[in-house]
Amino acid sequence: MIEVQQLTIKTKEATLVRDVSFKLTQGKVLGVVGESGSGKTMTAMALVNLLPEGVTSSGSISYHGKELKSFSKEELRRLRGEQIGVIMQRPMIAFNPVRTIERHFIETIRAHQAVSKRQAKAIAEANLEKMGLLPVQILSHYPFQLSGGMLQRIMMAMTLALEPAFIIADEPTTALDTTNQLTVLKELKAIVEQTNVGMLFVSHDLAVIQYIADEIAVMYNGFIVEQAPLTTLIKSAKHPYTKRLLQAEVGQGISEKLVKHIVQYDSCPYFSACSYAQVSCQSLPPLVEVTPHHQVRCIQIERGESVCPSSK
User: Fold this and answer.
1) 2-213 sits in which CATH class?
2) Where do you find CATH 3.40.50.300 in the chain?
3) How would you class 115 by CB atoms within 10 Å of its CB: exposed for 0-12, middle for 13-18, buried for 19 or more?
4) For the residues 170-189, what does the mean pLDDT come to?
5) Dist CA 94 CA 157 (whole Å)
6) 3-class DSSP assignment, residue 6
7) Which of 53, 128, 226, 252 could be cross-linked to 133 through a Cys-Cys bond (beta carbons 3.0 to 4.6 Å apart)?
8) What global pTM score does this model have?
9) Rounded mean pLDDT of the chain?
10) DSSP label at 254?
11) Three-class SS of residue 171?
């Protein structure tokens, strides 16, 4: 299990993520959804200690009870790949432009598994085929000869080849067209069901999250504002921002654009954007459980009030 408690991520100038807590368990997918700048990617990268230079984190991240901060460099290297696979948002930066895709696969697989080059190549071919790619058309190529969408699927295949217990997938379908997006989502969903892998799936696309996730965490301005099992969130969303996302998804329209607002960290993160804000909302609300496994960050909901009409 991966457990995150009160994660806060900062630069010298700003707080990017604040007070984020959740658990990842094997066989389940936690979908994290939110607009650009909500803190999704920073949260995902913190789980494998891959935050950019100048960005620091506090709080607790543990893997099977062991704090990530206590891992040595060698332990972290083996953790990434063998135990926790990472599918990055921008695949081009993950590949060495002067090495073929075959060499990338063989070196990566043999760094974590005691197999021959021939066996590593066979593993690569099997996982490329799972992603709808023909190995004979891929392995001899260099990264710059392939499209962003193809590189994204290659990165997924490479991650799956190592058979990790958990996968951190940061916008893994963004570079794909609709047909390939559905193919990849079906394959990822099947892998979760067949191998019991746990997954953190990050996306700005609520429809994609709904397809693959068992539970959804909605982020806004660095905070989780609502978290619940998939069915509960879709049918009984409570936070006004979650309801706006759902309304936008089904084409009902929204009264104002979903834009990033400056967050004041002593008040509700959604205060300046919320049409239902009151004077009392100027204080920072906790994330409270309104029903079993359904948490919401809203002072009015904490008091048992109905914030806005149902999105259904």
Assistant:
1) alpha beta
2) 2-213
3) middle
4) 86
5) 13
6) strand
7) 128
8) 0.88
9) 88
10) -
11) coil
